[in-house]
Amino acid sequence: xxxxxxxxxxxxxxxxxxxxxxxxxxxxxxxxxxxxxxxxxxxxxxxxxxxxxxxxxxxxxxxxxxxxxxxxxxxxxxxxxxxxxxxxxxxxxxxxxxxxxxxxxxxxxxxxxxxxxxxxxxxxxxxxxxxxxxxxxxxxxxxxxxxxxxxxxxxxxxxxxxxxxxxxxxxxxxxxxxxxxxxxxxxxxxxxxxxxxxxxxxxxxxxxxxxxxxxxxxxxxxxxxxxxxxxxxxxxxxxxxxxx
Length: 244
Description:
By secondary structure, the protein is an alpha/beta fold. The protein has one domain: P-loop containing nucleotide triphosphate hydrolases (Rossmann fold), CATH 3.40.50.300. About 45% of the residues lie in helices and about 10% in strands. It is built from 11 helices and 5 strands, in the order βαβαβαβαααβααααα. It has helices at about 20-25, 50-55, 80-85, 100-115, 135-140, 145-150, 165-170, 170-180, 185-195, 205, 215-235, and strands spanning about 10, 30-35, 65-70, 95-100, 160-165. Strands 2-3-1-4-5 form a 5-stranded parallel sheet. Strand 2, helix 2 and strand 3 form a beta-alpha-beta unit. It starts with 7 loop residues before the first strand and ends in an 8-residue tail after the last helix.
């Protein structure tokens, strides 16, 4: 049986705007989204299923000739770039949203705090045991080493790296850049943007669903991420404004 694999993937980062981006792009007439966001095929849970199953997650859509998916955990995963490199064509493209790791940490921590009974220890980043612990959430913001893993499987020019803050601030310009990267017309998507609310990263704070990050917490993680961020800037050849 013949099947078609995705032409591009949104691989990260968690809490970085990937849900908004997935739904924006799914409205483009030429882009064909997966049946749901976050298939998690290449990072383990469904990898024992064959590639035919994976391909069936991209149902036909009239006029849409570019299937895609979005699983932001792929960026952090150590096995995803290996498995993807083995199964996907070398011309596959990747979109990566990178959010200020300090704010990403706080957003992730706040979302998991009650469910996992998490506590912060500013004296030791490894303090709290468990899979969804303080260290795990911290490591998800170490983007440089994550991108280096992916660079071992696919050419650098296959990746479009976007600062999440720019996506939040100027969604239209960012989507225009993405459409150019994918080789599709932005005009086909622009009409949809006028009727779809732009993502507001402060919405949860305004509604009281997420507490504001204490200054001592921000200061601690600014220092913790300073060197990893500098390594990232060197890798990308540009600085992410506001991260240091």
